[in-house]
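Continuing the batch. This is chain 6 of the set; chains 1 through 5 are on the previous pages. Same settings as before, nothing changed between runs. Recording input and output for traceability.
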Amino acid sequence: MGVIEIEVDPLPCKWCRRPLEQRRWWAPKRFCGNWHRVKYRLAQILEFVLA
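Output for chain 6:
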């Protein structure tokens, strides 16, 4: 019995656009780390409040 290997294209980080290695096909990584996730969410909130 072998392991099924699925290739997933690297997606860019939503904050810095650096390509991220995708280890899971069912839940792709979208940020380099937690700090980039926080900055992205804060920018979204500020954009919503100021718009």
